[in-house]
Amino acid sequence: MSDVMRRLAEARPDHLDPETPVDPAVREAELTRAMAAPRRSRARRRLRVRPMWGLGLVSAATAAAVAFPVIAGPGGTEPGGADPVRRPGAGTTQTVVNARTVLLAAADGARRQPERSGRYWHTRTRYGVLEQVGPAGNRYAVLHQYQHDVWTPRAVDDEGWFRAEDLGAKPATPADEAAWRKDGRPTSWSTAPVPKGGGRDTAASLARDLEMHPKDSAFAHATGRPSDAPDDLNITQRELDRTPADPARLRALLLSHPLGEADDGDNTDAELFETAAGILMSRPLSPDKRAAFYRMLADIKGVTAVDGVKDATGRPGTALKMRQTGREGAYEIHFVVDRTTGAGLAKEIRYLEPKAGKSWLKPGTRWYYEAVTSQWVDTLPEMPRPPRG
């Protein structure tokens, strides 16, 4: 068994075994936690990067899964997407616009969408993160991408599925590719820091946790509707379903829970912004309730907007931004939306003033992204085969 497979096997609770009967809500909650561990330690009000709104097993080379036919992913792009490290203004026509105007337009667009339903709520999330690799004196960035698919059944007695697929890593830019060639064109890397003065031999001796062409596969299985199961957003689907489509009531619902990773009870506008955006990207909502969430966001202070952007998979949209400062420098959280339909497309994190562990990034670089598509479907994909031992 590979290191990737072993990490996932150890992280998965015993009751996630497909042959073990278990309460549906518990199964879904534990599945979310299993796929989100381990997490890097962070201080209070830390930068949040974990699914949904984060990385989970990023630096542990998240496990690949069985390939079987599903609906097309975000934009249908291959790993790498559209210019994953594009900086603001680089080859694009972007316009600063009023964030409140954008959010109210998105609310109107969402309200006009038809009510849809189905047997399963299918969410596909494409993740990407830049990692620095290579020997001292020839460090370079690779873009590591992976994908999660979740089919959540509407009925409690239906079976749903979760799938994780490692899409591998590759040099992020032409300059990184040149450094990679100088490094001997390796197809696997360690994301651990290289000791000062350590050359290629030192880098090669470190445990490899990232691959260009991952071969391992894994999958996890879940059943039941997670109406009572909290996830990383800390809001259950039942709570969302029962709360009226009113901005004030939705705001009160979110503020009644600890938001963000610190769980310190000190909910900031940034944490409210992130949580609402995560819900808009990943949860099934009626048109009226989706519109109400956008109207709620329109009253949050500190949000700015830029029109004419593209997410990492090439989809056009408008970026709603909030600036934050952490121990690794100032950064912006971008929530990319389609203002004509109210669809939440992507989250991005861009470092504006990188320092410490992110000092190698160029200011404005898209360091991390999540690109999401979601819709109701009536069928599940075929049962995947078990992982190789």
UniProtKB/TrEMBL annotation:
Keywords: Membrane, Transmembrane, Transmembrane helix. Residues 1-22, 168-202 are annotated as: Disordered. Residues 1-18 have a biased composition (Basic and acidic residues). The chain crosses the membrane at residues 52-72. The keyword Secreted does not apply. InterPro entries: CU044_5270-like. NCBIfam families: CU044_5270_fam. This is CU044_5270 family protein. It comes from Thermomonospora cellulosilytica.
